[in-house]
Structure formats: C-alpha cells, structure tokens
C-alpha cells in the first residue's frame, strides 16, 4: 500500500481528540491540517479540479486506513462522515455485541463501498481533469434526485413535501437519542440515519 503522509496526522488528531472532548472533527478540518503541514505541496502543478479531488482523496484514504488500524488494535471504531469524524471505544456501548470481539468492521454497505473506493490508489493515480468533471456531474445528479430526497425523508419519518432543514434536524435529534450506539442502539441503523440527515441538510430548504 502506498504511504499516505496524511495518515500519521489523522491518527494524531484522532488520539488527541479522544483523549480530550471526543467532539470530533470535520473532513475540512483534516484537509486544513494537511494543508498547513505541507502535505499537498506536490499537487501545485495539477489543474484546480484535480487538486481538490486529490486533497479530498488523501484525507479520506487516511481516515479509512485509520479506521482499520484503530479497530484492529482494539482501540475503537472510527465513525467517518464529512461533518464529524470521531472515535467510539470498542465496547458493547459503541458497537453491537456481535462485532466487539470481531476483527471485521461494523460497516454498512455504503461505508464498505466508500472504503473500497478510497483505499484503492488507482483512483488517485489515474485521475485527470476529465475524470474529475465526470465525477462531479454524477455527484450533482445524485444530489438533485427527488427519489433520493424522498428516501431520506422516509428514513427520518418526514413528509418530503413539507420537510425543511430545521424539521430534519429536529427529527434527527429525536431519533438519534433513541438509536445512538451509546444508548444501546444498532450502529448500522444510526449510520444510515445520520447519513440521511447529512444529505437532507444540503438538499432541503432552510
């Protein structure tokens, strides 16, 4: 596996965060730390779109590598999302009892697909400006999909015709209080709920 210079930085941030407030940090926070550490300096010759893609890829690759390392070392499970990345202890309170003693990560299908993508260095090495533009077009097509919005609203028990960012946040907080792994809920269900909420925050009116 290619050595990712962002990995030691991500592990350091995670361990410092878990030793203090466990508030977590966003993907943008990690990218900024990498920028300040000079990790992206070699990308300056690339087209702007490719630079943005590769910065994101290095940060996400570091997080998914860290997720596996921390789990295999028995330290905990790293929850990965654009808005908040945080380490939950590897106990029955944070993951299902079945997976506490397992080396297999408690990921849902979407998490596994994202991990497979970001751990494959071919996506990083073979990316050019045209490929990035294609990815962006596909991304916006998914973001503007009414079907996706309806699915996420149904998961949060919201009426798609009436849902707003405020109502999604209120409903997410209510449901998360019941199904959060720290409250004994299923981690897979909580991840799906959180991802639905994160999607709706960018797709619904305020």
Task: Provide a descriptive summary of the structure in words.
24% of the residues are buried. 60% of the residues lie in helices and 4% in strands. Strands 1-2 form a two-stranded antiparallel ribbon. It is mainly α and 206 residues long. It has ten helices and two strands; from the N terminus they run H-H-H-E-E-H-H-H-H-H-H-H. Residues 92-100 have low confidence and may be disordered. The chain has helices at residues 6-19, 27-36, 48-72, 97-100, 109-118, 122-125, 129-143, 146-155, 165-179, 187-203, and strands at 76-79, 86-89.
Quick overview:
With 206 residues, this protein is mainly alpha-helical. It contains ten helices and two strands; from the N terminus they run H-H-H-E-E-H-H-H-H-H-H-H.
Order of helices and strands: HHHEEHHHHHHH
Across the major sheet, the strand order is 1-2
Q: Whole-number average pLDDT? A: 82
Total count of strands = 2
Basic shape: globular
Name the structural class.
Answer: mainly alpha
Keywords summarizing the entry:
60% helix, 4% strand, mainly alpha, 206 residues, 10 helices, globular
